[in-house]
C-alpha cells in the first residue's frame, strides 16, 4: 500500500472520535436523565511533591506592604492614569465641524479598542445613527453626549451591592471563581481587609488546592486582615476544604466565609464540574452562598463573555469583579457581559492596596472612558 | 457569537457561487465578515485595518482574474496574509557560548510568568540543559514558594533571597556560575506597563543580568490591550519573543497576531495546558487556522504520529477499508487515540467539524460506556457482532452497566460504519489506492449514498466522519488549497 501514513492516522482518529462521539451524543440526547448522573469523585490533580530540593537560601519573607490607610481611590483617577486612546478619538470627533463618515469610523474604532466588542459597538452606533437621523443632530458634542448616555444606559442594573444576609443561621459564603491569573486570591485578600474593617468576622477558605503556594498566599492575606484561615492538603478536594471552612465558621459564629477556588479555564469540563460540586457542597451545612463573584481581568478580550457564560452555567454567578483596571486596558467587555448575561459588575480593582478595590459606578466608568 | 469564519463564509459563498464571479461589492461583503471574525478573535483594531486592506487587494485581484472559484481565492488570500503576518519561522534558541544563557521573564500580573518559568526550565532540561530558576518576584505573597514547589517537581534548583529583586537577580547569576548551571531563568513580579516605578525596576534587573533572551508572557485571552502592553515592555526591555500562555482555552489568540505585527518579534513558545510539560515551541503558520477557526491539521497529525503505533495503525486502516475492521480493532484505536490527549482538544483541531460538535463539551469519560460495552462482549461477538442476539444483548448490557438500547445502538452504528468504510475502501481502490486520493474517495462516498446517515450521529447531514470529508484535498470551501493547513503536498511527507 502506498498510503501516506499521515492519512492513516487521521482516518483512524476521525473515525474513532466520530463513532464514539456519535454514540455519546445520541445517548445524551435520548436520555437526558443521564446528565444528572452523580458527578465522579473530584478529579485528583497530581499534587506537587512536598519535599523541596535543597533550597539555597531561606524562603523570602513577605515584603511589608503598605497598610491600607490610603483613602479610597476614585475609579476615574485611576483609569485615566493610562493614556486613553478613547479620549483621543473623542477629542478628534469634537474637533470636526460636523458629523461625517470619519466620525463614525473613529467612534467605532475607539469602542473596539476598549474591548467593547464588535457586537455591542455595532449595536450602540446603529442606535445612535437612528437617533441622529431622527433628531437631526449635527453637532459632534451632542453626538458624544448621546453616546455617553446610551453607554450608561447599557449598564443599568441597579443592584450592585454585595449581598450579605444577617439573618442566616450559619455564615454567609462568598465564592470567588474565574480563569487562571485574574486575581482571585488578591481580590479575596482585599475584600477580607475591607469586611473586617467594617466589623464583620471572617474566615478565608483556601479552596485553591492546585496552584503551588496558593494557600500560603491566601494565608498571608488572612493574617493581614486578622481573619481565620482554613486550608487543606495540596492537591486535596477543594469541596471539603470549603466545607470545613464553613463548618468551622459556623461553630465559632463567624459572619462570613470567603471561599477561594483554583483558577480554571472554562473549557475544562471536569474542572468546571468540580466547581459545580464545590458550590453545592458549600451549602451542605448551615452556611449559604450569598455571592458568587466571577473575577475577570480588565485586559481580557472577547473571550470574557464566554467565560461569564460558562461560569454562570455551573455556579450561578451573582456578580463580576473587574480587576487590573489601573493598567492600560479598559475592560469594555463588561458591556457585553452586563447586557447579554445580566450579571452586574460589583467591584473593580484599581491598585495594589486593599483600599484599591472599590464599588463599581457605571457613570464614573463611562466617564472615565470618555475623559483623558 | 464565535461563529467560525469558515461557517460564515459558507453562507456568503454559496450565494456567490451562483454568480460565477465576484464583483467588488461581493468582495466588500466578504471583507466585512473577515473584519468581524478578526475583531472577535481580539486582533488589534489597527492590525485588522491593515490586514483587511491587504486582503481586499488580493481578493479584488482574484475577482478580476475570473478564476473558476473566486471564493476559494479569497480564502486563500486570507490565509496567506495571516500566515505572512505571523511569520513563518519558529524561533531558534541559540545558547550562549559562555554559559549561562540568561533568560528574563516579564509580563503583567497573572499572565503566567511563574508557571511558564518552570515550564521553560522543564523544556530546557529536555534539551539537555541544566537550568537554574531565580525567583525575583518578591511582590506577590508566596510567589517564590510557588516557584520552589514547581522547581522541586521538575527537579530544577531555585534560587531566591529576601532582598530586593535586582539584587536577587544578580546574585542568581553568580549562583548559576558557581553551580555550573548553563541556563538561568529569572521570574519577575507582574507589573502594569503604566507603572513607571515598576518598569524602571525591571529595566534595572535586565541591566544587572544582561539577558540573552527576554520573553514577554502574554495571556492568550488578552484583548486589544495586548499591543499596548507589548509596545511598552518592548520599549523598556527590548523583547526577544513572546510566550503565549493559556492557549488551551477557547480564546482565538488574535493577540498573538497583533503583537507579532506591532513589535516584530515572534511568538517563541505557547503554553497549552496546566501540566508542566504542556509547553511547546510556537508554530506561527498553524495559528492562522486557529484565529480563523479552521482547525489545526498539522498539530493533529503530529500528535497522532506520537500516539499511534505505526504498524498497527496501518494494519487497522487496511482492514478498515476491506471491511474487516472488528470491534476489537476499534477498541484498540480508541486506546491509541486517548494517548493523543483530551478528546475535546482533538475535536477543536479537526477542521470541518460541525460547529455544534466543536462547541460541545466532551470528556474522555463520555466514551467510557462505549468502551465498557465492547469489553463486555466475548471475542466472537467482537469479531462478528452479527451473532449478538437478545440474550447476549441482555448480558452485555448488564455486564457494562448500560442498557439494552445502548448496546443495540452501538452495534447498529458499528454495522453502518463497516458498510460505509467498505464503500469508501472501494472508492479508494478504484482511484488506485493512493493515500492522497483517499480523501477524494471520501468525498465520493459522501456524494454517493449515505455515509452521512451515520444513524443519529450528526446534527447536520454529512457529519460522518468529521474531518474526513474536509480533509485537505477534498476541495471543500475553506480547506482545499490552504497553505499551512497541510494540503497533500504540505504534509511533512513520510511516504512509504
Can you put this structure into words, describing what you see?
The complex is a heterodimer of chains A (372) and B (496). Helices cover 46% and strands 12% of the residues of chain A. By secondary structure, chain A is α/β, with parallel strands linked by helices. Among the domains of chain A are: 75-153, SRP54, nucleotide-binding domain (Four Helix Bundle (Hemerythrin (Met), subunit A)); 172-317, P-loop containing nucleotide triphosphate hydrolases (Rossmann fold), CATH 3.40.50.300. Chain A is elongated, with a radius of gyration of 24 Å. The relative contact order of chain A is 0.16. Chain B is α/β, with parallel strands linked by helices. Helix content of chain B is 53%, strand content 8%. Chain B has 21 helices and eight strands. Chain B has helices at residues 5-17, 24-40, 45-64, 70-86, 113-126, 143-153, 165-179, 196-209, 225-237, 254-263, 284-291, 297-307, 310-322, 327-339, 343-349, 355-359, 368-375, 379-383, 390-400, 404-430, 435-447, and strands at 101-107, 131-136, 158-159, 183-188, 213-219, 241-245, 267-271, 279-281. In chain B, helix 4 (70-86) packs across helix 11 and helix 20 (404-430) packs across helix 21 (435-447). Chain B starts with a helix and ends in a 49-residue tail after the last helix. Chains A and B meet through helix 1, helix 4, helix 8 and helix 11 of A and helix 2, helix 6, strand 3, helix 9 and helix 12 of B.
CATH-scheme architecture of the largest domain in chain B:
3-Layer(aba) Sandwich
Widest sheet: strand ordering of chain A: 3-2-4-1-5-6-7-8
Please tell me the total number of domains of chain B.
Answer: 3
Q: CA-to-CA gap between the ends of chain A?
A: 69 Å
Percent strand of chain A equals 5-15%
Structural class call of chain A reads alpha/beta
Largest sheet of chain A: 8 strands, mixed
Q: How much is the radius of gyration of chain B in Å?
A: 26 Å
Rg of chain A (C-alpha, Å): 24 Å
Unreliable stretches of chain B, pLDDT < 50, 5 or more residues?
A: 431-496
Order of helices and strands of chain B: HHHHEHEHEHEHEHEHEEHHHHHHHHHHH
Assign the structural class of chain B, choosing from mainly alpha, mainly beta, alpha/beta, alpha+beta, or little secondary structure. Answer: alpha/beta
Percentage of residues in strands of chain B:
5-15%
Task: Give helix % range of chain A.
Answer: 40-55%
Number of helices of chain A: 13
Strand elements of chain B, count: 8
**Oligomerization category of the chains in this entry:** heterodimer
Quick check: average pLDDT of chain A? 81
Amino acid at each position: 500500500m502506498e498510503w501516506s501514513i499521515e492519512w492513516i492516522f487521521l482516518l483512524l482518529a476521525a473515525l474513532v472520535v466520530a463513532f464514539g462521539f456519535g454514540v455519546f451524543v445520541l445517548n445524551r440526547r435520548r436520555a437526558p436523565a443521564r446528565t444528572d448522573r452523580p458527578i465522579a469523585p473530584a478529579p485528583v490533580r497530581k499534587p506537587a511533591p512536598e519535599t523541596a530540593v535543597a533550597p539555597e537560601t531561606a524562603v523570602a519573607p513577605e515584603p511589608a506592604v503598605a497598610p491600607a490607610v490610603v483613602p479610597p481611590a476614585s475609579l476615574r483617577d485611576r483609569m485615566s492614569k493610562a493614556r486613553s486612546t478613547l479620549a483621543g478619538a473623542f477629542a478628534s470627533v469634537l474637533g470636526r465641524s460636523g458629523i461625517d463618515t470619519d466620525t463614525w469610523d473613529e467612534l467605532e474604532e475607539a469602542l473596539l479598542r476598549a474591548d467593547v466588542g464588535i457586537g455591542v459597538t455595532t449595536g450602540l452606533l446603529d442606535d445612535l445613527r437612528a437617533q441622529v437621523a431622527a433628531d437631526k443632530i449635527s453637532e459632534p458634542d451632542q453626538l458624544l453626549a448621546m453616546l455617553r448616555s446610551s453607554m450608561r444606559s447599557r449598564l443599568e442594573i441597579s443592584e450592585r451591592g454585595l449581598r450579605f444576609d444577617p439573618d442566616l443561621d450559619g455564615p454567609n459564603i462568598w465564592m470567588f471563581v474565574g480563569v487562571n491569573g485574574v486575581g482571585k486570591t488578591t481580590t479575596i485578600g482585599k475584600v477580607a481587609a475591607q469586611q473586617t474593617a467594617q466589623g464583620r468576622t471572617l474566615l478565608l477558605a483556601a479552596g485553591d488546592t492546585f496552584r503551588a503556594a496558593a494557600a500560603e498566599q491566601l494565608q498571608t492575606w488572612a493574617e493581614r486582615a486578622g481573619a481565620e484561615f482554613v486550608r487543606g492538603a495540596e492537591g486535596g478536594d477543594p469541596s471539603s476544604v470549603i466545607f470545613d471552612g464553613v463548618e468551622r465558621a459556623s461553630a465559632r459564629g463567624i459572619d462570613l466565609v470567603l471561599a477561594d477556588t483554583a483558577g480554571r479555564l472554562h473549557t475544562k469540563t471536569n474542572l468546571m464540574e468540580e466547581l459545580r460540586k464545590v458550590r453545592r457542597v458549600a451549602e451542605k451545612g448551615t452556611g449559604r452562598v450569598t455571592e458568587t463573584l466571577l473575577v475577570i481581568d480588565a485586559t481580557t478580550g472577547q473571550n470574557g463573555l464566554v467565560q461569564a457564560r460558562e461560569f454562570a452555567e455551573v455556579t450561578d454567578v451573582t456578580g463580576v469583579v473587574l480587576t487590573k483596571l489601573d493598567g492600560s486596558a479598559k475592560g469594555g467587555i463588561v458591556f457585553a457581559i452586563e447586557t447579554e448575561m445580566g450579571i452586574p459588575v460589583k467591584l473593580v480593582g484599581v491598585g495594589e492596596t486593599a483600599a484599591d478595590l472599590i464599588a463599581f459606578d457605571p457613570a464614573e466608568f463611562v466617564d472615565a472612558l470618555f475623559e483623558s | 457569537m464565535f461563529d467560525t469564519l469558515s461557517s460564515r463564509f459558507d453562507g456568503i459563498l454559496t450565494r456567490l457561487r451562483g454568480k460565477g464571479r465576484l464583483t467588488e461589492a461581493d468582495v466588500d461583503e466578504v471583507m466585512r465578515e473577515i473584519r468581524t471574525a478578526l475583531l472577535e478573535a481580539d486582533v488589534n483594531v489597527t492590525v485588522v485595518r491593515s490586514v483587511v486592506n491587504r486582503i481586499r487587494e488580493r481578493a479584488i485581484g482574484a475577482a478580476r482574474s475570473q478564476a473558476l472559484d473566486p471564493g476559494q481565492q479569497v480564502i486563500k488570500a486570507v490565509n496567506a496574509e495571516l500566515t505572512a503576518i505571523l511569520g513563518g519561522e519558529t524561533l531558534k534558541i541559540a545558547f550562549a557560548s559562555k554559559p549561562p544563557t540568561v533568560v528574563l521573564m516579564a509580563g503583567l500580573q497573572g499572565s503566567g510568568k511563574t508557571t511558564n518559568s518552570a515550564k521553560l526550565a522543564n523544556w530546557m532540561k529536555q534539551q539537555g540543559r541544566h537550568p537554574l530558576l531565580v525567583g525575583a518576584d518578591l511582590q506577590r505573597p508566596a510567589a517564590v514558594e510557588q516557584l520552589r514547589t514547581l522547581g522541586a517537581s521538575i527537579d530544577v534548583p531555585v534560587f531566591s533571597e529576601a532582598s530586593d529583586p535586582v539584587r536577587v537577580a544578580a546574585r542568581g547569576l553568580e549562583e548559576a556560575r558557581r553551580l555550573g548551571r548553563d541556563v538561568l531563568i529569572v521570574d519577575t513580579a507582574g507589573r502594569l506597563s503604566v507603572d513607571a516605578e515598576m518598569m524602571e525596576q525591571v529595566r534595572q534587573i535586565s541591566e544587572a543580568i544582561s539577558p540573552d533572551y527576554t520573553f514577554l508572557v502574554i495571556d492568550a485571552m488578552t484583548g486589544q490591550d495586548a499591543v499596548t502592553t507589548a509596545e511598552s515592555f518592548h520599549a523598556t526591555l527590548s523583547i526577544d519573543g513572546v510566550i503565549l500562555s493559556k492557549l488551551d482555552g477557547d480564546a482565538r489568540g488574535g493577540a498573538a497576531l497583533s503583537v507579532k505585527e506591532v513589535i516584530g518579534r515572534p511568538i517563541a513558545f505557547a503554553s497549552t495546558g496546566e501540566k508542566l510539560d504542556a509547553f511547546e515551541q510556537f508554530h506561527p503558520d498553524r495559528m492562522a487556522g486557529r484565529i480563523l477557526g479552521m482547525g489545526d491539521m498539522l498539530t493533529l497529525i503530529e500528535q497522532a504520529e506520537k500516539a499511534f503505533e505505526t504498524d498497527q495503525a496501518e494494519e487497522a486502516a487496511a482492514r478498515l477499508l476491506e471491511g474487516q475492521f472488528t470491534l476489537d480493532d476499534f477498541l484498540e484505536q480508541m486506546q491509541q487515540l486517548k494517548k493523543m490527549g483530551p478528546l475535546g482538544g482533538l475535536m477543536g483541531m479537526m477542521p470541518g467539524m460541525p460547529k455544534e460538535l466543536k462547541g460541545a463539551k466532551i470528556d474522555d469519560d463520555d466514551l467510557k460506556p462505549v468502551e465498557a460495552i465492547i469489553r463486555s462482549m466475548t471475542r466472537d461477538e467482537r469479531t462478528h457482532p452479527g451473532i449478538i442476539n437478545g440474550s447476549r444483548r441482555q448480558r452485555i448490557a448488564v455486564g457494562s452497566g448500560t442498557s439494552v438500547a445502548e448496546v443495540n445502538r452501538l452495534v447498529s452504528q458499528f454495522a453502518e460504519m463497516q458498510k460505509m468504510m467498505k464503500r469508501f475502501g472501494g472508492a479508494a481502490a478504484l482511484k488506485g489506492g493512493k493515500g492522497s486520493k483517499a480523501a477524494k474517495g471520501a468525498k465520493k462516498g459522501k456524494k454517493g449514498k449515505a455515509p452521512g446517515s451515520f444513524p443519529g450521529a450528526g446534527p447536520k447531514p454529512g457529519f460522518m466522519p468529521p474531518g474526513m470529508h474536509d480533509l485537505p484535498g477534498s476541495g471543500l470551501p475553506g480547506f482545499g488549497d490552504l497553505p499551512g493547513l497541510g494540503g497533500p503536498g504540505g504534509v511533512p511527507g513520510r511516504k512509504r
